[in-house]
Amino acid sequence: IGLPRCGTSLEDLNKVLEIELNSNASCVWQIHRTSNQTIRLIFSYFKFAASSSCETESIKVYDGLSTNSSFLGQVCNNTDSVPVFESSSDSLTFLITTNSEYFTRSFFAFYYFFSQESKIENCGGHLTGPNGTFISPNYPKPYPEFTYCVWHIETTSKSKINLQFDDFFLELDKNCRFDLVAIYDGLTTNSGLIGKVCGRSQSRFESSSNVMTVVLATDYANSYRGFSAQYTSIPLPGPAEPNTSLTCSSERMEIVLSKSYLDTLGYTSTHLQLNDPSCRPVLTDPVIFSFPLTSCGTVKTEEGQSITYTNTITASATGGIITRQKSIEIIVKCKMENNSTLEIMYITENNVIQNKTAIGRYNVSMSFYSSDSFSDPVFQSPYFVDLNQTLFAQVSLHSTDPNLLVFIDTCIASPKSDFGSPTYDLIRSGCNKDDTVVTYPPLEHYGRFKFNAFRFLQNSVSVYLRCDILICDSNDTNSRCTQGCISRQKRATSSYMWKTNAVLGPIRLKRDRRSAHQSEPLTEVRAEETPSLQQYSFYTLSFVVLTANVIIVVAVILKYRIQHQYGYQKMQSA
């Protein structure tokens, strides 16, 4: 543990930071290490001046080597979570600023480099059903160092969740700075912190709805046996929630309102309208609005590394002078974040707000094609090819938003489907790392490249591809998607809206297919050889017999001629 002064450059593989700052500070910490790994930075404790706001005091985190890099987020006095930030490369920067109030601010953080491919067993997941159990990794043995696990719990609607730790043993600290469990009142870590625990706590926690998130984060030392937990769902009292739902995909938004719910408010489908009144429901029982993300008056906004599509359904009485009906306003949002889509619905009935959330993701696919026209996809799996054959690959974003651009940032190959060692770079940071790779210019929702088939040494028969894909706003001329191959130093200044990856394979050589089925063709060849040999023997015997007959005939003829030429007559007696 160090007490660094106002900012520094850090190259350690992992480090704990205990920071104290006074008034009017502006300090920058840069974390960088030449590596193929990314960085996870966790602020497990922070104490700002009591009177401060996010405008006057904060920790701002950037995805790169400087404060000009893409903005990841901030921590301030009203932050209600244990903030966790992850870089997209091997560099991360954070800036701490304080106001003029005389007060000693305290911050505790730790960071470590890690590989996205590394997985810990029993670490996180999506838990559903009315009740269930889960444990920390290795329980009841000590949990691994640098563990970061997230469990999303979702029970039936119209219920809340009761979480109980039957056994709990983490490193003890009064502020839970080293190893901790954080519980959130929703399906994300931004949905409000219910509690943060460590040591020997066996506390009970309760959500306000049918969703809860539990996070386990540990540092590098003093591991203990972890925890065993169980959850149960409890029915919510009071009137039933409106029977509504929102579904977001990368192409469409669909809103469902039950007819019985509208009946209780005295409305029908004819009273409802979107931002664009010309967009009408596709069904009336239940009432369903289904439309492309960029139509019907939907408003698109950009917030950091996310894109949000917002529309509003309004219902109000028409005609007359007075009304006793409730006015309702339904605000629907599809928020496209990294690797997921957060769907949010707010229903206001005379200023009473209820909300509903769900999880989805962008629809991105990757396929091989038979030629550079990219018109005929290859459906064969495994894909058998010749060594050094040119292969054509395309990444496709399935979205109705015409203002999105696809960019292939990195592609690696591996003989293993889990992309363990060894791996081979085809594309890295938009730069072609293999001499045979040719990338095509970005084309709206498509990213394309070609390369020549190869194989790994040491008798590996398969090749798998995994590509990191960035999605940008095509109206942003300075986005990462428009910059092509750039150096690591310049990469930090570029921006993108969304990031995911796609996997393709396996690719195998045609000769491997032949060797895999070698025994069957050999059997067929031997079966074919037997009749051929019999047929050959028959023809040979016939030829020998015919030749012998010819020789006999010729011999008889010759004998006959000789007898006539040198004939003899009996001597007649005198």
Properties at a glance:
574 residues; mainly beta; Jelly Rolls; Immunoglobulin-like; six-stranded antiparallel sheet; six-stranded mixed sheet; 4 helices; 38 strands; 43% strand; globular
Overall geometric form: globular
CATH superfamily of the largest domain: Zona pellucida, ZP-C domain
Number of domains: 4
For the termini, the CA-CA separation is: 153 Å
Percent of residues in helices comes to 10-25%
Low-confidence stretches: 320-324, 349-360, 516-538, 564-574
The CATH C-level name of the largest domain is Mainly Beta
CATH topology of the largest domain: Immunoglobulin-like
How large a portion of the residues is in β-strands, by DSSP E?
35-45%
- In CATH, the architecture of the largest domain is Sandwich
Number of strands: 38
Radius of gyration: 37 Å
The biggest beta sheet, please? 6 strands, antiparallel
Q: Pairing-aware structural class of the strands and helices?
A: mainly beta
Transmembrane segments: 536-558
Keywords: Disulfide bond, Glycoprotein, Membrane, Repeat, Signal, Transmembrane, Transmembrane helix
Pfam family, one: Zona_pellucida
Domain CUB: 6-114, 123-234
